Amino acid sequence: MSRRTRNLLGALVVLTLVGLLAVRLLAEPAHVLLAGDSILRQTGPKLDEQFGREVAVDNAAVNNSGLLTPGFVDWAQRLDEMVTDDDPEAVVFLFIGNYTDTNFATDADGHPIRKNTPEFFSAWGQEADHLMQVLEDRGSDAAVFWVLPPPQYTEANKITTAGLRAEYEALAERWPQITLIDANDALAGPNGEYLASTTNRQGEVVDLRVADTVHLTDAGARRLARVIHDAIEQDL
Q1: pLDDT band at 3; cut points 50, 70, 90
Q2: Is 215 a domain residue?
Q3: Is 205 a residue whose pLDDT tops 80?
Q4: Span 110-123, mean pLDDT?
Q5: Is this prediction's pTM over 0.90?
Q6: 79, 132 in Cβ contact below 8 A?
Q7: Which candidate, 146, 141, 30, 37, places its Cα nearest to that of 83?
Q8: Which residue among 16, 48, 107, 130 has its CA within the 20 to 30 Å range from the CA of 22?
Q9: DSSP H or E segment with residue 76
């Protein structure tokens, strides 16, 4: 093979590689929409880091928001707008039960709904259904994931978490396109118990929760992001 031929072949290889790289860089990234409260809001940047440039993580989670406080954040309306604007390939929901101490939701008879009552969990489940209906009405073909909330420390929060996990499991039965992601895989002990910290490979104690026992440290958010990433990656 002559030097000229070798040079031509080398140039063709370089041009091919450059072309493939350009196509990859110019390709529209897959969009992952995050809808939830502060726990998901904290986790979003870590999830973005794990996916890299080929996936755009649209972190629409709002601190202190929940499904029964539309005066603060109307999640049905917000979801409708986000799906219309972005047409995501995947939607991830995580709500741990934020509510209000004053402006209560009401039942069909106008009675206030108190937190951690059967009426509270039933109403929450109905609003979760509403979000799924928004996706269906918009004709979204996004893969849908609901994250089962992680364990909590206080007795009141334990009741909330148990009730919401049951509601989300029932939701997945009503909407079979839902994939459930268990936050316990990142933030619970071997028996599903609250896990404030863990020990890394260097034998160092690493906190997973901050002092309020609810929110995540960077390490906790990174662990949860890894579990979410692994669950949704195959659908993108």
Answers
A1: low
A2: yes
A3: yes
A4: 98
A5: no
A6: no
A7: 141
A8: 48
A9: helix 75-86
Report the CATH number at residue 160.
3.40.50.1110
- Domain assignment of residue 177, given as a range: 29-235
Task: Taking residues 37-49, report their average pLDDT.
Answer: 98
Report the SS3 class of residue 150.
coil
The tokens describing 10, both together, are 């080398």
Sheet strands side by side (includes 30-36): 55-59, 30-36, 90-94, 143-148, 178-182
221: in domain: yes
Classify residue 191 by its DSSP letter: T
Q: How far apart are CA 67 and CA 147, in angstroms?
A: 14
Is the pLDDT assigned to residue 2 strictly greater than 70? no
Question: Does 25 score more than 70 pLDDT?
Answer: no
For residue 218, what are the CA distances in angstroms to 42, 46, 53, 212?
8, 8, 21, 15
Partners of 147 in beta bridges: 181
CA 115, CA 50: separation in Å to the nearest integer?
Answer: 36
Q: Are 148 and 182 in contact (CB under 8 A)?
A: yes
